[in-house]
Specification:
Layout lengths: L1 E5 L3 H12 L3 E6 L2 H10 L6 E4 L5 H4 L9 E4 L4 H14 L4 E6 L16 E4 H13 L5 E6 L4 E7 L21 E7 L2 E3 L12 E7 L3 H8 L2
Length: 222
Amino acid sequence: MRVVLVGGGNVGTYIARELHKGGHEVLIVESDPNRVAQALAQGDPEGVSWLQADACEVSEFVKAEPSSADVVVAVTGDDEDNLVVSLLAKQEFGVPRVVARVNNPSNEWLFNETWGTDVSVSTPHLLTALVEEALSVGSLVRLLAFEGGRVRLSEVTLADGSPAGGKEVQELGLPRDSTVVAILRQDRVVVPRGDTVLYSGDEVLVLVSNESEDDVRTILVG
């Protein structure tokens, strides 16, 4: 998989390093010539290519050949830049998958299909959700949003008395546009099947749509 990653700061270089370890071809696009020169001199991240260019300008971004990329990731420290890169990647170059970093939580509503973003990651919102997930029992907590917020990964720790307790997954009657993707039970991961039984204390990860979220909450929480 070819990944074009815009933003060569600490976040960008870490992501690039991990993706390269996973066997992917990664190009970092960075506007700061000094940062690019330093990275090339140090050879870090190893095996990752660098391009000094302003990805917010079409004439510059085209040098990264985004039209041949499977994924474009915009992770600069500026939300405006990340939005512009997302829009160019999707509308000008037809990139199949665009992922963007949200720095200011109040801007998260902008990162949607209109701006070319398939998946947005807001670190403050994610941290808040993880804290809620760690502290909440019997509440459906949103972790990550996909497809412009229409689909999300949520988590619930089944409380005593949960209507799902003691039932098999196939007996839950989940809506067609939702599914249980994993169950965390006593420090191990259970891959759910139709006959997998849920118990109180299970951490259940479920994909839900906007339309199915209330029904899923009723089924798992009550």
